[in-house]
Amino acid sequence: MTEQTTGRKVTANLVISLDGRYHGAGGPADFAAFAAYATSDVSRDQMTRMRENATTALLGRVLAEGFLAFWPSVAADDNADPRDREYAKWLVDTDKVVLSTTLTQAPWEHARIANGPVTDVVADLKADGEGDILVNTSPSLTKALLSADLIDRLYLIVIPEIAGGGLRLFDDGLPASKWKLTHQETGDLGEMALVYDRLR
Which of 8, 12, 83, 113 could be bridged to 135 by S-S, CB 3.0 to 4.6 A? Predict the structure, then answer.
């Protein structure tokens, strides 16, 4: 694996329930419990915070297809919340790396396809360029990088609900690690924005 030479941080963002799940019991498309919190001030401010230093977005294919079908229209919408528009513009304009075993070329601007282990892709990104590498709302990539202890910062929104089913972010068997809470904010709905930095 390539040694880090640029000092780039690997960051990741996700919304999780009190029982640590990133979707509901109905499966990967079950976000009913999460939807009410997505447009809160705390969530929108966290969205701004996570992209401020990021120059590369790392996404899985399915998420990329959904995001890049939705966010460009927000970037052009004068009536959208300014924080949503800024995030949308960032996502459209920033360098995007999409992990896929099926796509051979990216159908989006400023994007390229990577077909290989996410740990190798991240190692290559860390060896070149500058700015944070944001694993953008991609739980499978985040989990793989947590397993390899390659994440430097976690941006979490914790919602005050127990999903009762669905996949968890923190699986058993992860390597032990210590983190420092560097930001904490609570919204009117009881959701919490948390930023944790990995202590090494």
Answer: 12
